[in-house]
C-alpha cells in the first residue's frame, strides 16, 4: 500500500495515499473562535474556506511548529450520507510517499488516541496509520461542517 509519511513529534505516521487529495505548503490560517485548540484555523483555498487540523496538537503534543517541510495535507473528509468535504491536516516534517506491506500492519494492542490505527515496523522505524474516520469527534465535525449536514 502506498502511504504519505509525516511526523507527529518524533514519531512517524501515515495516511493511505488514496486518501490524500493534495499536499500544500503551510499557509496563513484564519482563526476559528471557540474551536478546540487542535483546530488550527481556516485555509483560503481558491476562495473556499477549508478547516485545518493541527495533528501535533490533536495528538496532545506542543502546538504546531512550522518547519521548511511542514505541509497541509488535504483530504476528502467523509461526512454523513456519503458527502465529502475538504479537510486540511497540518503536519510537520512531511517525508513523502512510501510503500508499506498491508499484511505486515498490526493492531498496536494499546489504547491511545482513537484516530491512530495499525502499525508496521521497518528499517526506517515504526509507522502508524491515521484513521480519518475517527479523526474528529462528532461535535467538532458538526462545528467545522455545519452546512454539510454533519450532525453529532
UniProtKB/TrEMBL annotation:
Database matches in Pfam families: CheW
Domain CheW-like, first and last residues per copy: 1-141
GO cellular component: cytosol
GO biological process per UniProt: chemotaxis; signal transduction
SMART domains in the record: CheW
InterPro entries: CheW, CheW-like_dom_sf, CheW-lke_dom
Protein name (Swiss-Prot/TrEMBL): Chemotaxis protein CheW
Originating organism: Massilia atriviolacea
Amino acid at each position: 500500500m502506498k502511504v504519505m509519511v509525516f511526523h507527529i513529534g518524533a514519531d512517524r505516521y501515515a495516511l493511505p495515499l488514496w486518501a490524500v487529495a493534495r499536499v500544500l505548503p503551510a499557509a496563513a490560517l484564519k482563526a476559528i473562535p471557540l474551536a478546540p485548540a487542535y483546530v488550527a484555523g481556516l485555509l483560503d483555498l481558491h476562495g473556499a474556506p477549508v478547516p485545518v487540523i493541527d495533528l501535533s496538537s490533536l495528538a496532545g503534543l506542543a502546538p504546531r511548529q512550522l518547519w521548511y517541510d511542514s505541509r497541509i495535507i488535504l483530504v476528502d473528509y467523509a461526512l454523513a450520507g456519503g458527502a465529502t468535504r475538504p479537510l486540511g491536516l497540518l503536519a510537520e516534517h512531511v517525508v513523502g510517499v512510501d510503500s508499506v506491506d498491508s499484511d505486515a500492519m498490526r493492531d498496536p494492542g494499546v489504547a491511545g488516541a482513537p484516530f491512530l490505527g495499525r502499525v508496521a515496523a521497518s528499517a526506517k522505524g515504526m509507522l502508524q496509520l491515521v484513521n480519518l474516520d475517527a479523526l474528529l469527534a462528532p461535535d467538532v465535525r458538526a462545528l467545522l461542517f455545519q452546512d454539510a449536514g454533519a450532525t453529532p
